């Protein structure tokens, strides 16, 4: 009866949910009365389902006054259209991959793509420089850094790894008044949220900062009509926003929604209560924070607002949980179809006893995150964003496999559901469904494989019941196998193996040290750049941006590169570690800015030029060149003399350095082209071009690439080199460049309105005109330095290919020109050394001699600093040397056995000298046949009988076939008799029957009373003048080995007499 009553109660709750959505008030009231009755009736029963603990009271809270049933897609579109109707330009969401040099975190806020505007670093010729009013819905991921929601996902109803940030921006256009008015009208007039349920917070001031309360904002809200008791001041933590320790910042105002039954949430605002939801944050960027903490007014004020789609949708759909909206429920339905457990119930905390509702939320949330991330070009891997994606997928798989016990392939089956929900807003998802499914299937296969392999490895290394920090790090680094085992998987395995001590703290300390080293390197690099405050100072001082178009005025001669007569530069600014200076003296380390320069600033993956600035009074060594907001900053030191502001200096660019950079940069473009012909869906992730080598990072939809791809890539690039293709570079309008077929651009890169096209083999004008020249080669937007013809690259070899057989970012390292040719010469030299080594081993040279040669070759193979080799050849040489080592070891064993056999023979011959026969005991039964053969050759006229005990581990498994009169503890002994023909010829036909090898061992058989097993007669190929017979005896205390040897001697003695 009670069960039936609970079923009725569930029906009531369902009816109420539907009524709340549709605003069917009469039915809703009936459901409320029914609920009260059943609550009273069931109150006496002690065992209540966890449904009661889900705060039923909250289900009768405020319902939206809107009669519209809001779908999430309608919520999003309404927001975008509202602002487009108010002259806002729609700018599509940027990729969740941040721009280069923007750190290793995902894009986590709507404003990220507009940072150049806020920082004043936007190129004046770029499209972004024209933005005034903008609206969009930005894809955001928060799983690292300051904003990290990963650990909270699943534990509550509102944290997510991926979410959409609805936002509108004003860049120097409207400010507080218009921003507040538009926000209020949208929420109350369009979305129809009740005004008395909305609470406003504003910045209450901070004496330490010297910033007063934002009373202007407070008064704007009052004038709009918000009740005074619904407007509250808060401090910096809640209502002052900044981008970092320095830079643009300002007060913000937030709009909160009240879900409480009473409708009076003043005391709950900003307390973290789930009854009050922060809906919208409006940031007013009006200050520029200096390094000393001082806040200076920005010359141009901006508005940056953000509202989470998931939270807004939950409010408009009258749901207490974001997970109960149409953004997540279809995912739960798909999971349920494959799950043997009950459907999602929305339980939290202690109510979720088995953790399955938490698992539902985590799997659904993470499926959204990895679908979006992979569509934008991230691949599960070992470094940076790739490692973070892998961590999320692994967490998702853990919940799917260990908690929900879902069958293989569930993650791939969730992908189309995510795309169906989000695809209209983000069409890029629709184009990537197959790719995403293939990648997550590969990730799941790897996860399950690592669980098996990892268990084997951890079982071996963890013998003392402890997995220490170093072990966990080594597992992750792949010390015991090529594919590393992440901490998450190690912990799952450790739990299964019931390992009591796991040193996670030690692991974290080691990883923190690594991060600290990386951070120190980043700080060192940042020291070569101008800060935002430096840029403001220079602009205020009237220092113009540097004219650096001279960097492209290189001339290619028959053999090398040179510059014509370079324009001198005038010193406009200098800076050392203490600030801007007027003079620098000998040995001073500083930065210098001139009005014009031919030096190439680091960019596009290419390192900067090096060289000198000189005049009759000084020489300045230029060691690094960087660009900041149009200023070219030369970092270096004064070699001699001194330099002052206003001095005129002559530039001297190191042409050898520039030439090799240009060679490797062009080779990088050709490599990119070759990869796109070999792998699927290649996306460039980064590159590093130096005079010594080139490094190219890329992602592709292939989980692994075949071994043959190395040959294909190398052949394609060297083919372009042999074709002697001209390299064309030309600036054209960006929109015109984007129309060029097969144009390669960097994802999430902001290009200037005039873009530089670099084409291998086809004139840029022909590309624009779409002329078919019959040439298929690389075409990219690039501001780097290049050669004039592909033949100048000389030759191309790949020395490393990281991640070739794994998911995630793959990295190719390659050499060109003389360095490539030297690597091929290194291969030829090593092959000759291996040939000589092989000959030495075959010739039986002493191990000391050839072991030294082997060590020398291995050192050359693995010491990459001294001996760079092409990857294909290195692997072939390593495989060859491994086979050779096996052969060498086998050869050594044979030599050692032969040496031991020789010593045994010499001893036996010595001891039997003068005797007519020999009966001996040996320690190694496996050598008996060889010894008999050798004795037959060395002493062909002498009969021999040998005995040897068999070690227990070598004994034949015959115990179960033993006769009843033989003890199971009896030992096996092998006896072999050799009787030469010359010995048998002494006997008559009647006597001969006793003189055969078989007769000798038969005699032993009679002695053993059946305690033996005859193996049979074995005719040795080496013994053409005699016969051999083997027998296996069982010796024990009553009949030991010596017993048989004594009788054998007596038997042969009688024959001789």
Automatic annotation (TrEMBL):
Binding site for Zn(2+): 665, 669, 782, 786
Enzyme class: ligase
Record keywords: Aminoacyl-tRNA synthetase, ATP-binding, Ligase, Metal-binding, Nucleotide-binding, Protein biosynthesis, RNA-binding, Signal, tRNA-binding, Zinc
SMART domains per UniProt: tRNA_SAD
InterPro entries in the record: aa-tRNA-synth_II/BPL/LPL, Ala-tRNA-lgiase_IIc, Ala-tRNA-ligase_IIc_anticod-bd, Ala-tRNA-synth_IIc_core, Ala-tRNA-synth_IIc_N, Ala-tRNA_ligase, Ala_tRNA_ligase_euk/bac, Thr/Ala-tRNA-synth_IIc_edit
Region forming the signal peptide: 1-24
GO biological process: alanyl-tRNA aminoacylation
EC number in record: 6.1.1.7
Task performed by this protein: Catalyzes the attachment of alanine to tRNA(Ala) in a two-step reaction: alanine is first activated by ATP to form Ala-AMP and then transferred to the acceptor end of tRNA(Ala). Also edits incorrectly charged tRNA(Ala) via its editing domain.
Entry note about domains: Consists of three domains; the N-terminal catalytic domain, the editing domain and the C-terminal C-Ala domain. The editing domain removes incorrectly charged amino acids, while the C-Ala domain, along with tRNA(Ala), serves as a bridge to cooperatively bring together the editing and aminoacylation centers thus stimulating deacylation of misacylated tRNAs.
Name used for this protein in its record: Alanine--tRNA ligase
């Amino acid at each position: 009866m009670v069960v039936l009553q609970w079923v009725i109660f569930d029906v009531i709750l369902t009816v109420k949910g539907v009524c709340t959505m549709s605003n069917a008030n009469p039915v809703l009231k009936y459901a409320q009365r029914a609920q009260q009755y059943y609550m009273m009736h069931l109150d006496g029963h002690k065992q209540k389902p966890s449904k009661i603990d889900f705060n039923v009271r909250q289900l009768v809270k405020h319902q939206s006054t809107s009669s519209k049933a809001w779908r999430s897609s309608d919520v999003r579109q309404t927001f975008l259209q509202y602002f487009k109707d108010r002259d806002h330009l729609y700018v599509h969401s940027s990729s969740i991959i941040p721009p280069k040099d923007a750190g290793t975190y995902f894009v986590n806020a709507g404003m990220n793509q507009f940072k150049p505007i806020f920082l004043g670093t936007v190129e004046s010729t770029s499209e972004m420089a024209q933005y005034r009013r903008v609206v969009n819905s930005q894809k955001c991921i928060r799983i690292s850094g300051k904003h990290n929601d990963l650990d909270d996902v699943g534990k509550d109803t509102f944290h997510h790894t991926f979410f959409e940030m609805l936002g509108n921006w004003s860049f120097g256009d409207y400010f507080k008044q218009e921003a507040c008015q538009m926000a209020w009208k949208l929420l109350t007039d369009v979305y129809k949220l009740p005004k008395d349920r909305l609470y406003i917070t504003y910045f209450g001031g901070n004496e330490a900062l010297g910033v007063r309360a934002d009373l202007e904002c407070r008064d704007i809200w009052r004038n709009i009509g918000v009740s005074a008791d619904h407007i509250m001041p808060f401090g910096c933590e809640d209502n002052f926003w900044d981008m970092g320790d320095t830079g643009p910042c300002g007060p913000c105002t937030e709009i909160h929604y009240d879900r409480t039954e009473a409708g009076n949430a003043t005391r709950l605002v900003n307390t973290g209560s789930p009854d009050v939801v922060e809906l919208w944050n409006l940031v007013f960027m009006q200050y520029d924070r200096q390094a000393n903490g001082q806040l200076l007014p920005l010359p141009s004020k901006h508005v940056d607002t953000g509202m989470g789609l998931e939270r807004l949708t939950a409010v408009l759909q009258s749901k207490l949980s974001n997970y109960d909206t149409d953004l997540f429920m279809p995912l739960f339905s798909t999971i349920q179809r494959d799950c043997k457990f009950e459907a999602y119930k929305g339980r939290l905390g202690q109510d979720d006893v088995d953790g399955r509702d938490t698992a539902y939320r985590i799997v659904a949330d993470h499926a959204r995150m990895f679908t979006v991330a992979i569509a934008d070009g991230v691949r599960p891997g070992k470094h940076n964003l790739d490692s973070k994606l892998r961590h999320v997928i692994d967490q998702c798989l853990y919940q799917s496999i260990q908690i929900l016990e879902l069958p293989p392939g569930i993650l791939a089956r969730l992908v189309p559901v995510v795309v169906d929900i989000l695809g209209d807003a983000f069409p890029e998802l629709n184009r990537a469904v197959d790719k995403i499914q293939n990648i997550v299937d590969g990730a799941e296969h790897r996860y399950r494989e690592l669980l098996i392999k990892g268990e084997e490895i951890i079982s071996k290394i963890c013998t003392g019941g402890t997995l220490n920090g170093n072990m966990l790090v080594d597992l992750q680094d792949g010390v015991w196998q090529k594919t590393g085992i992440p901490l998450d998987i190690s912990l799952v395995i450790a739990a299964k193996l019931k390992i009591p001590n796991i040193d996670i703290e030690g692991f974290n300390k080691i990883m923190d040290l690594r991060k600290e080293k990386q951070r120190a390197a980043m700080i060192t690099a940042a020291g070569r750049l101008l800060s935002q405050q430096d840029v403001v100072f220079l602009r205020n001082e009237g220092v113009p941006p540097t004219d650096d178009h001279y960097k492209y005025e290189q001339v290619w001669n028959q053999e090398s590169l040179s510059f014509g007569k370079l324009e001198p530069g005038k010193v406009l600014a200098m800076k050392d570690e203490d600030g801007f200076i007027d003079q620098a003296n000998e040995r001073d380390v500083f930065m210098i800015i001139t009005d014009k320069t031919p030096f190439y600033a680091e960019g596009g993956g290419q390192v900067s030029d090096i060289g000198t600035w000189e005049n009759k009074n000084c020489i300045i060594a230029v060691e690094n060149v960087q660009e900041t907001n149009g200023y070219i900053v030369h970092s270096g030191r004064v070699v001699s003399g001194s330099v002052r502001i206003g001095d005129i200096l002559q530039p001297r660019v190191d042409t050898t350095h520039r030439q090799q950079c240009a060679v490797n940069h062009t080779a990088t473009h050709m490599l990119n082209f070759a990869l796109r012909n070999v792998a699927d869906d290649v996306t460039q992730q980064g590159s590093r071009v130096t005079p010594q080598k080139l490094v190219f990072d890329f992602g592709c939809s292939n989980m692994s690439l075949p071994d043959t791809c190395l040959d294909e890539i190398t052949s394609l690039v060297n083919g372009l080199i042999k074709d002697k293709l001209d390299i064309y570079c030309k600036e054209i309008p960006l929109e015109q460049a984007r129309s060029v077929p097969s144009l390669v651009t960097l994802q999430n890169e902001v290009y200037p309105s005039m873009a530089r096209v670099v084409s291998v083999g086809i004139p840029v004008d022909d590309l624009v005109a779409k002329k078919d020249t019959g040439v298929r080669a690389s075409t990219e937007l690039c501001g780097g330095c290049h050669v004039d013809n592909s033949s100048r690259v000389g030759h191309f070899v790949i020395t490393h290919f990281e991640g070739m057989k794994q998911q995630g970012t793959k990295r190719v390292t390659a050499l060109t020109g003389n360095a490539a040719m030297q690597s091929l010469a290194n291969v030829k030299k090593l092959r000759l050394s291996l040939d000589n080594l092989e000959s030495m081993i075959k010739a039986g040279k002493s191990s000391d001699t050839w072991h030294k040669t082997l060590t020398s070759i291995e050192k050359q193979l693995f010491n990459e600093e001294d001996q760079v080799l092409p990857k294909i050849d290195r692997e072939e040489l390593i495989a060859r040397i491994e086979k050779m080592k096996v052969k060498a070891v086998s050869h050594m064993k044979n030599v050692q056995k032969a040496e031991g056999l020789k010593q045994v023979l010499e001893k036996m011959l010595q001891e039997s000298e003068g005797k007519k026969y020999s009966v001996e005991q040996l320690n190694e039964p496996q050598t008996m046949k060889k010894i008999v053969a050798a004795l037959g050759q060395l002493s062909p006229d002498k009969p021999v009988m040998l005995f040897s005990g068999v070690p227990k581990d070598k004994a034949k498994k015959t115990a179960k076939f033993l006769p009843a009169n033989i003890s199971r503890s009896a030992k096996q002994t092998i006896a072999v008799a050799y009787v030469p023909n010359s010995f048998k010829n002494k006997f008559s036909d009647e006597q001969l029957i006793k003189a055969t090898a078989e007769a000798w061992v038969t005699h032993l058989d009679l002695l053993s009373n059946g305690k033996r097993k005859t193996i049979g007669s074995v005719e040795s190929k080496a013994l053409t003048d005699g016969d051999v017979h083997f027998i296996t005896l069982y010796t024990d205390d009553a009949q030991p080995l010596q017993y048989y040897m004594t009788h054998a001697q007596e038997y042969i003695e009688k024959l001789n007499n």
